[in-house]
From TrEMBL:
<protein>
    <recommendedName>
        <fullName>Flavin-containing monooxygenase</fullName>
        <ecNumber>1.-.-.-</ecNumber>
    </recommendedName>
</protein>
<dbReference type="Pfam" id="PF00743">
    <property type="entry name" value="FMO-like"/>
</dbReference>
<dbReference type="GO" id="GO:0050660">
    <property type="term" value="F:flavin adenine dinucleotide binding"/>
</dbReference>
<dbReference type="InterPro" id="IPR000960">
    <property type="entry name" value="Flavin_mOase"/>
</dbReference>
<keyword id="KW-0274">FAD</keyword>
<dbReference type="GO" id="GO:0050661">
    <property type="term" value="F:NADP binding"/>
</dbReference>
<dbReference type="GO" id="GO:0004499">
    <property type="term" value="F:N,N-dimethylaniline monooxygenase activity"/>
</dbReference>
<keyword id="KW-0521">NADP</keyword>
<dbReference type="InterPro" id="IPR036188">
    <property type="entry name" value="FAD/NAD-bd_sf"/>
</dbReference>
<keyword id="KW-0285">Flavoprotein</keyword>
<dbReference type="InterPro" id="IPR020946">
    <property type="entry name" value="Flavin_mOase-like"/>
</dbReference>
<dbReference type="InterPro" id="IPR050346">
    <property type="entry name" value="FMO-like"/>
</dbReference>
<comment type="similarity">
    <text>Belongs to the FMO family.</text>
</comment>
<keyword id="KW-0503">Monooxygenase</keyword>
<keyword id="KW-0560">Oxidoreductase</keyword>
């Protein structure tokens, strides 16, 4: 809404319409495209896959290198596994103005509050269709190069599955390529001589390949928890190794007769043995790394202005703009441990408004200073660099900051309360948190709120 903002950057200037390339048609790219178009920009969305949805496009296909490290492996984008149900309730998971509501008339829909992955893909397809995004997506077009050219514009080279490769110039580029594809693995003493199999959760789809195996699963994230429960049904033994567990730990997981919890592996050996710090030894067949992912922008050429160092993408003002290249280069979706879709929506609104000159950015020097202060404060608080973009604890504050700078309403209070209630419930009820809950009053508030958005 160009007229509503009290934050006009250059009130005397005409709003600018820019030609913008969006890289990726996952949730972030879709909402970025919508917000950019709402603001009057022309948009092309590049998508290397053959459909929208990114992470939510489940495929049984896995990569040729199961641990996902070989530089010449075939790349499968999505890390989705067959059994996945959302870890957020649908009321907070959707975009703010496009509720992720169960559709009673939808016969093959999944009306559960924490639905399976197919339902999320359906929701994203509905979003793309209702906002006419599919027409501006170039499918099977992989961006292979993005670099600055004269006049502060960007050259974008794309490789197309059908047709000639393309080279074009855009006023701005919004990077929405996701960050759950490039595996990060644990460093384990002795691993080069270990003869067993190694897999990263990126290439986990179903439990079947783990049948009758002794599995060491490293990690304690949401995926690690899901996958350990999945494979415990078929594996001979599952040993979870977690660096957040005390060194003397070796305990059976309640409710399972074949799952144990350990602290992080001490060493592995040629004979297949895995040694834990408490002295226990397990003869294992497979090490499954559920150890997360790295930010990866293989197409981006910024002459060293934007770097990824120990999983810090930097320097980025508010996790979005590299000061020296703002506003023509931006990133949507960098923060993690967040409620993603709504955050992408706020980030995209801000980017779109800045590109049209409706909203002002501070000077490059001021942005740089802000980034430096942010990093120094993190260091002073003992937060490791790799957690630079982990904003879970203050994500609603972050969203509200963006909202206030966009001139749009801040997050509804029930969203934060529901997020907190969900985590409390998961701690209380374990795997049952997706079936039973106590935040009925918040669901009612959400439903009341959604009445505003009848689409
Ligand atoms: P993606 O969905 O990864 O989309 C990026 C897109 O960019 C892809 O389509 C890809 O093909 C394309 N692309 C990449 N590189 C290029 C290129 N060079 N050229 C052209 N196109 C390119 N979030 C939740 O809210 N709830 C959950 O329950 C939840 N569960 C999750 C479970 C798993 C296993 C994972 C991995 C993530 C989960 N998430 C969950 C987080 C989820 O990733 C985000 O919700 C969101 O879908 C990410 O969207 P994105 O657009 O940033 O990235």
């Amino acid at each position: 809404n160009k007229t509503a903002s009290a934050l006009s950057a250059h009130p005397t200037m005409q709003p600018l319409s820019r030609h913008v390339a969006v890289i990726g048609a996952g949730a972030a790219g879709l909402v970025a495209a919508r917000e950019l178009r709402r603001e009057g920009h022309t948009v092309v969305v590049f998508e290397r896959g053959d459909q929208i949805g990114g992470t939510w496009v489940y495929t049984p296909e896995v990569e040729s290198d199961p641990i996902g490290l070989h530089p010449n492996r075939n790349i499968v984008h999505s890390s989705m596994y067959q059994s996945l149900r959302t870890n957020l309730p649908r009321e907070i998971m959707g975009f703010r103005d496009y509720p992720f509501a169960a559709k009673e008339q939808d016969e093959d829909g999944d009306p559960r509050r924490f639905p399976g992955h197919r339902e999320v893909l359906k929701y994203l397809n509905g979003f793309a269709k209702d906002f006419g995004i599919c027409e501006i997506v170039r499918f099977e077009s992989e961006v292979v190069f993005v670099g600055l050219v004269e006049g502060g514009k960007w050259k974008v080279k794309s490789k197309r599955k059908r047709g000639d490769d393309m080279e074009e110039v855009y006023d701005a580029v919004v990077v929405c390529n996701g960050h759950f594809t490039e595996p990060r693995v644990a460093q384990i003493p002795g691993i080069s001589s270990w003869k067993g199999k190694q897999v990263h959760s990126h290439n986990y789809r179903t439990p079947e390949p783990f049948r009758d195996q002794v599995v060491i699963l490293i990690g304690s994230s949401a995926s690690a928890i899901d996958i350990s429960r999945d494979i415990a049904g078929v594996a001979k033994e599952v040993h979870i190794a977690s660096r957040s567990v005390a060194t003397e730990t070796m305990e059976k997981k309640p409710g399972y007769d074949n799952m144990w919890l350990h602290s992080m592996i001490k060493s592995v050996h040629e004979d297949g043995s895995v040694v834990f710090p408490d002295g226990s030894v397990v003869l294992a067949d497979i090490i499954l790394h559920c150890t997360g992912y790295k930010y990866h922008f293989p197409f981006l050429e910024t002459n060293g202005i934007v770097t990824v160092d120990d999983n810090r993408v930097g320097p980025l003002y508010k996790h979005i703009f590299p000061p020296a290249l703002a506003p023509s280069l931006s990133f949507v979706g960098i923060p993690f441990k967040v409620v993603p879709f709504a955050m992408y929506e706020f980030q995209s609104k801000w980017i779109a408004g800045i590109l049209s000159n409706r909203i002002a950015l501070p000077s490059k020097e001021e942005m740089m200073e802000d980034v430096q202060i942010f990093c120094s404060l993190q260091e002073a608080s003992g937060i490791p660099k790799r957690f630079t973009h982990m904003i879970g604890d203050y994500q609603f504050e972050y969203d509200d900051w963006l909202a206030s700078h966009c001139g749009c309403p801040v997050s509804e209070e029930w969203r934060q309360q529901m997020w907190l209630a969900t985590f409390k419930n998961a701690r209380l009820r374990g795997p049952l948190y997706q079936e039973e809950w106590d935040d009925h009053h918040l669901i009612l508030q959400a439903q009341e709120d959604f009445r505003k958005y009848t689409f």
